[in-house]
Every structure is written in C-alpha cells, then in structure tokens.
C-alpha cells in the first residue's frame, strides 16, 4: 500500500471515529439540540476549504515564478476540492441555520463570503476549461488564483461592515472543551481527506496533461 | 513626459479617436443605462419615497451593468483585427497598454456618469446636487475601482470563448467591495451622514482601489503573454 492510499484510509478512519463520537457518544448541545452535531462537520470542512484556497494561491504564485505546469495542476486540483468544500460548507450551514436561527440565510459575513467563493472558484475552473493550450491555461488560472486570494479578505471585511449597518450577526455559542477537541479531530480528518483527494486529483490531471501533450495522433 | 505615461496616453488617444469617429458604442450604452433605470422603476413601482431611498443602490447597479457591457469592448477592436499582438510588439513596458485602456474606460464611465447621475436624480427624485462634492469623491473612487478590475479582467477574458459570460462571472465577485463601498458612501452622504459612516466606506474604497491597482498593474504582463 503506498503512502497516498494509506493517507486516504487514515482519513476515512478519522472521519468514521469523529462521526461515531459526534453522533452517538457526545450528548446533544443543551441550547441547539441534535442539530448542533452538524457543526462537527461544518466547521472543520469550512477550515479545510480555506486551507484549499490558500493552497491554490500558493501554487499559483509558484507557477508564476517557476512556470512549471506541475504547480498549475496542483493549484487546479486544490481549487476543485476547495470548491466542493465551499458548497458542502454552505449546504451544512443552511441546514444548521434553519432550526437554530430560524432562517435559511442570514447575510452573515462568513456565509456571504463563502457563497461568493463558489462563483469565484467556479470562474477559475471555467476559464481553465476554455483554453486548449496548457501554458496559456496555466497563466490565466494562476492570475485568477492570485487575484482571488487578494480580494477575498477585503470582500469579507466589506460584507462585515455592510452587515453591521443592520444588526450584529447572531453567532453560535463558542464551543470549547470536549467540543474543541472534536473540532480539532474533525479538522485533521478532513484535512487528511483534502490532501488525499487533492493529490489523487493531481495525479489524474498530470496523466491527462501527458495524454493531451502526446497528441491525438498517437492515441 | 516619461515613456510609460506617454505610451499610455497614445493608446488612450487612439481609442478616443476611433470611438469618436464611429460613435458605435456610446449612444447604445447610454440608452441601455437609461433602460436599466426605467426597469428598476417598473420593478419597484411608482413609490417615490422607496425609489428615493434605494436611489444610491439602483444608480450603482446601473453603472456596474452598463459598465460591464462597455468593458467587454475594451480589447475587442484589437482582438478582431489581431491588434493585441501588434500593440504588444511595440517597444517598452506592456503595462502602458493596461494604463491606456484603464484611462479609456475611466473616460467612458465618466461620460456615462455625467448623464446617469442627473437622470437618476430626476427619475428617483433625489437631490444629488446638495452633496455634489462628497458624491463626486465617491464616484471617482468607485469608478476607478471598477475600471481597475474591469480593464484587467477584460484583457484576461478577451481571448476566451463565451467571454460575454465569463467577464461578469470573474468581475462581479471582485466588485463586491467596490459596490458596497460606493453604495454605502452614496447613501450615507445622501442622508447627511448622520452615523458618520461615509468615511469608513471611503477608506475601504480607497484602500481596495490601491491594492487592486498595484496587483493588477504588477501582474498584467503575464495576461498579455503568448
């Protein structure tokens, strides 16, 4: 069994352990009830999503400096997994928000910014799909990956100010103690899963590129 | 004048000449902007108080929509005639192309806003004139931010299939701070800035403008590479 496959199995084991602990062992939150268990997935996935988009940014910079397609493929693979994480975060967040806040959507700066991440990185991936030339594709993608990471913190800040015009965002109880440990466990589990999916996707992308470069006449 | 601004000015002048000779775009753009203002009234109804309260937001949405259509044309003439490559072949820093095109977009948007602000004032019955100075500052910062990002993304998308769709897809999320800042400051000034919030919005606008301008200018040569 190679290291990557091992990483995959370890992540699955951690996710399984977290699910058993979160669903069966720990009691439901006194204020929020059973729905609070969603947070054991929602919060770590949101952290991992941010990690993934940071990886896109780093790989984009590396590509622009070194111009090696490897970095571009690593960036694109991280963007795909990150986009999946963003969508999962939003879905879990709205499911949690309806019973807890009474509304599906709260215009909270975090929610709004996460929702904006979806079109931003979808745009990144669509632009990639529009170019046939690997170098051109990599260049445009790296530029978008870099700009996106510059704009997102300011988008968050501006939404935060805009939101504070109305009422302070309702925030969940801060969770510490055993819940904090659960979140850490979740973070390692989903970070492992991210790394596994990311590197698997990268291998696939590298193989695809090889095929693309070898040309159709040989296939 | 040193080389970079001189080259940028030459590109600006070329675009102004070709635009004034054909006048293809601007009339259509103005009509489109007017129609957007009308659409808002149709959608919201003949409630003068409501329209007046929403005026800042509606005006900036009209500017963003119309501006996006106009941005799509930034590099289109060159692209159709294969001129982007020729522009790049001229000696000197290719950033001059960005600066020239940016200046061109600023001119077009300024011309649009000179018509659009009074039109919105009449249609939505708001008194922009009473706050002319502060609103001019908002308009300058908002328009600059819009053009900085817009010029950059229009250079990036001009070679792409379905660029009409991709330009707004990339542009709109990047415009969130610009739109929130411009609308926030406009509405604050129109209300006489009772909460003292306008300054914060202006600072947000100004810092976003500067950060994005530096990043876009720095990275622009990568966009034009072939």
Q: How does the major sheet of chain B shape up? A: none
Supply Rg of chain A: 19 Å
Helix count, DSSP H or I runs of 4 or more residues of chain A: 6
Question: What percent strand of chain A?
Answer: under 5%
Instruction: Give the ordered list of helices and strands of chain B.
Output: HHHHHHHHH
- What is the string of SSEs of chain A from the N terminus onward? HHHHHH
Number of strands of chain B: 0
Distance between the termini of chain A: 31 Å
Question: What does this protein structure show overall?
Answer:
The complex is a heterodimer of chains A (219) and B (226). By secondary structure, chain A is mainly α. Chain A has one domain (3-214). In chain A, 79% of the residues lie in helices and 0% in strands. In chain A, helix 1 runs antiparallel to helix 6 (178-214) and helix 4 packs antiparallel against helix 5 (134-163). The longest helix of chain A has 37 residues, at 178-214. Chain B has 226 residues and is mostly helical. In chain B, 83% of the residues lie in helices and 0% in strands. In chain B, helix 3 packs antiparallel against helix 6 and helix 8 runs antiparallel to helix 9. The interface between A and B is medium-sized, with 28 and 33 residues.
Summarize the structure.
With 219 residues, chain A is mainly α. Chain A contains 6 helices and no strands. Chain B has helices at 3-22, 25-44, 48-71, 76-81, 83-89, 95-123, 132-157, 163-190, 198-224.
């Amino acid at each position: 069994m190679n290291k990557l496959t091992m990483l995959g199995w370890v992540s699955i084991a951690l996710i399984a352990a977290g699910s058993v602990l979160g669903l069966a062992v720990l009691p439901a939150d006194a204020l929020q009830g059973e729905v609070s268990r969603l947070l054991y997935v929602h919060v770590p996935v949101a952290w991992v999503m941010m990690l993934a988009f940071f990886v896109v940014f780093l790989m984009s910079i590396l590509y622009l400096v070194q111009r090696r397609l490897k970095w571009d493929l690593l960036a694109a693979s991280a963007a795909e997994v990150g986009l999946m994480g963003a969508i999962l975060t939003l879905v879990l967040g709205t499911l949690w928000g309806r019973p807890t806040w009474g509304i599906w959507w709260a215009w909270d700066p975090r929610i709004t910014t996460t929702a904006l991440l979806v079109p931003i990185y979808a745009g990144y991936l669509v632009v990639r799909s529009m170019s046939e030339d690997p170098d051109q594709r990599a260049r445009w993608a790296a530029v978008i990956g870099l700009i996106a990471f510059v704009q997102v913190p300011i988008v968050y800040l501006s939404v935060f100010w805009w939101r504070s015009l109305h009422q302070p965002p309702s925030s969940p109880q801060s969770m510490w103690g055993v819940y904090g440990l659960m979140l850490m466990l979740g973070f390692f589990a989903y970070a492992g899963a991210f790394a596994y999916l990311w590197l698997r996707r990268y291998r696939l992308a590298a193989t695809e590129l090889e095929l693309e470069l070898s040309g159709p006449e040989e296939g | 004048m040193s080389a970079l601004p001189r080259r940028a000015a030459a590109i600006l002048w070329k675009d102004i000449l070709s635009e004034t000779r054909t006048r293809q775009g601007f009339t259509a753009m103005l009509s489109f902007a007017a129609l957007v203002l009308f659409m808002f009234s149709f959608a919201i109804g003949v409630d003068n108080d409501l329209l007046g309260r929403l005026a800042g937001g509606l005006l900036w949405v009209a500017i963003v929509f119309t501006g996006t259509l106009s941005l799509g044309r930034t590099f289109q003439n060159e692209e159709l005639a294969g001129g982007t490559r020729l522009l790049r072949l001229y000696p000197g820093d290719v950033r001059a192309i960005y600066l020239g095109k940016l200046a061109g977009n600023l001119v077009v948007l300024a011309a649009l806003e000179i018509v659009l602000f009074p039109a919105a004032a009449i249609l939505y019955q708001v008194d922009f004139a009473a706050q002319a100075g502060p609103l001019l500052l908002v308009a300058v910062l908002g328009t600059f931010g819009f053009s900085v990002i817009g010029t950059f993304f229009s250079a990036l998308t001009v070679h792409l299939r379905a660029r009409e769709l991709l330009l707004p897809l990339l542009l709109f999320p990047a415009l969130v701070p610009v739109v929130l800042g411009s609308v926030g400051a406009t509405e604050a000034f129109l209300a006489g800035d009772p909460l003292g919030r306008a300054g914060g919005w202006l600072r947000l606008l100004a810092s976003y403008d500067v950060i994005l301008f530096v990043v876009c200018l720095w990275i622009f040569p990568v966009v034009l590479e072939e």
